[in-house]
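Q:
Just now I want nothing more than another pair of eyes on a protein record. Here is the record:
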Amino acid sequence: MEQYRVADEVIRFSSKYVENELRFKAFLTTTEDAEVDLRIQGSYLEGFQKNHRNLSLAQCELILSMRSFYDYLIKKEKLFLHATVVVNNGFAYVIIAPPSGGKSTLAKQMIEYQPELAFIVADDRIVIANLEGAPVVWTTPWSKTINGNPTQYYVVKAFCIVKKNKSSSIIRGCEEEIVEEILCEYPKECRMDVERILRSIHLEKCTLLRVHSNIRDLPIEKLFKMVVL
């Protein structure tokens, strides 16, 4: 069975669905033994799909394998996060917003501002953790977009909380605002673990920003000036 390195963890996974195997291909490793098996039993998969008939079996398998990895990561003091990550000049900018809330738009504007330096490393499911006293992020096979080296981590330079608004502005945020915004993405029963991990990853070492955007007039130049640490 194939083994993969995801967020610096080695896992086993196999699937009879080609689209799922392809997602994991770039994470393949042959040098270490896996600590966790993310294979989903057929009966469990079919039972889950009966309650989610709008999803294919392949989609259900991805969801269930992601949930299993989420549980494993919590034990490792790492956290799945729904966010878009733009890498600029080697550093990560984490963009957080509700569904259709402006993550992709802000990411596109950041790349257009400095196309020679910036790219989207992941646009959906990422992993965040504390590494040597700094917050770092990895992409995952569950992200829709995967660019760059999928096993490489990036030190986070800024967190951007995006809210749609009639006018555009960028202001300093605080750790409490970032934590509360992230916690809203998780079921209540998970929030104690999520908050504990968030408090451990040294958010205060990043620039924390609240971005209000009407898409047209967002001052991207100001954003980059504000994250010069």
Summary: The radius of gyration is 18 Å. The first helix runs from residue 18 to 25.
